[in-house]
Specification:
about 130 residues, mainly alpha, 4 helices, rod-shaped
Length: about 130
């Protein structure tokens, strides 16, 4: 087994262990962990099975296994960017909704404070009039 193949297997195994540990500590959500586990398992398979990259490149019509691996990495990164962009859009919508709700609650709170101030002022005036 070549040193590069062994390094790929070790790095992928470390990625898998880190992802599992981060999931266990609840520092990585499951929807992201699934993607990283898939990538780690894929790299382990590519490193452990010697002819797999060449067979996959021949299957897809790509001449070199290195070009296939580069294309696979590019598509994986494209998928990651797409998923994260979707998540950012969702979070922007949540932030906008939350800010609008806070603004409405502030308006309501200001109205309640103004009404309370009026009642307190009226009560104080009545108390002052009632005293001889």
């Amino acid at each position: 087994m070549s040193a590069f193949r062994l390094l790929a297997i070790v790095v992928a195994a470390l990625v898998l262990l880190v992802v599992i540990e981060m999931m266990r500590r609840r520092k990585l959500r499951e929807k992201y962990a699934g993607m990283w586990l898939f990538v780690g398992i894929g790299v382990v398979c590519l490193g452990a099975i010697p002819g797999l990259p060449t067979w996959l490149s021949n299957l897809t019509g790509i001449q070199l296994a290195a070009n296939f691996l580069f294309a696979a990495a590019a598509f994986t990164l494209l998928f990651v960017v797409l998923q994260l962009s979707s998540e950012v859009g969702h979070l922007e919508e949540e932030v906008r909704t939350t800010v609008e709700e806070i603004a409405l609650l502030r308006c309501e709170l200001e109205g309640v404070r103004a009404e309370l101030d009026k009642r307190v002022t009226n009560a104080e005036e009545r108390l002052l009039r009632a005293q001889p």
